[in-house]
Amino acid sequence: MTPKLEQISLKIRAADPALSEQAILSDSEHLRLASMHEGARPSFVTARAMLRRELGSYMGLIGSAVPLAQKGAGRVSLTGFKDDEPPFFSVSHSGSAEAGIAAVAVSDTSPIGIDIQQIDHHIDWKRVAERRFPTREWDLMSAMPDNEGRMLFFTLWAIKEACVKMENGTLMPYLRGIEIEFRDGSFHLASPTPGGSSDIWIFFHFLSELDLAVACVSQRKTMVTLDCDIEMGVVDLSSLDNTAFD
Asked: N or C, fewer C-beta in 10 Å, the chain?
């Protein structure tokens, strides 16, 4: 019997500068919050509150009771659960206090990774792509008009960073170590990931109204539904910060 295709809701929300949901955080998360730069706090609180609610719904717990754990700046995990045991989840956030965006997805069947990237029209994307991406990808991007090349750059970056999260890797080996090709209207791996995956499912969407690239990767084919509830005007696109490209 063919396994039933899992449906994943990828929720995207504007960060709340008022930090109104911080009561749901654990003591350790409050300590982490207190040590953060002020501009990073809204996205962190919004993303962590979203994750706690989603996992709580899955586990039959209130959000504050979800046993999330994190060592330093490492991967967030569930106390008492193995890495290969559901629920699987991934979080991404971007931006500052004035313009943060957070995203969360939870899966019952397969490890997943998600990433959101704001299209930055000021970054020297060609310099970064030439240094960080495989030669064939750089050759393709550099031959495109600037806007199209920039779009592909952020698309590939989001997909590769989602792979990092799925496999609990580190970013730099994935940027150059993964090669992605586009065929039949979708993205596919042209080379195995540093974590050893040779066949993954890749979802990508571009939210033009937010200038936002959204990627989700999974070890099994899934059906992703975007649940994006952001009003234009709440997010000031000009002040979003993609610090990963420094």
From this structure: N
Closest to 102 measured CA to CA, from 110, 94, 111: 94
In 3D space, the residue among 150, 141, 101 whose CA is nearest the CA of residue 122 turns out to be 150
Say if 7-108+222-235 and 111-219 have the same CATH topology: yes
CB crowding 171-183: b at 16 or more within 10 Å, else e: eeebbbbbbbeee
Strand, helix or coil for residue 136: helix
Helices (H), the chain: 27-35, 41-59, 125-132, 135-142, 146-167, 171-177
CATH architecture, domain defined by 111-219 = Alpha-Beta Complex (3.90)
Query: CA–CA distance from 59 to each of 2, 43, 72, 98, 106 (Å)?
Result: 26, 24, 25, 33, 11
Return d(Cα 60, Cα 224) in angstroms, integer.
23
pLDDT of residue 100: 87
pTM: 0.89
Cβ distance 126 to 149 under 8 Å?
A: yes
168, 75 Cβ separation under 8 angstroms: yes
List the domain boundaries for the chain.
7-108+222-235, 111-219
List of residues 6+ apart from 96 with CB closer than 8 A: 39, 40, 42, 43, 239, 240, 241
Q: Give the integer Cα–Cα distance in Å for 105 and 217.
A: 11
pLDDT band at 47 (very low <50, low <70, confident <90, very high): very high
Hey, is 222 helix, strand or coil? strand
Say which amino acid occupies 77: S
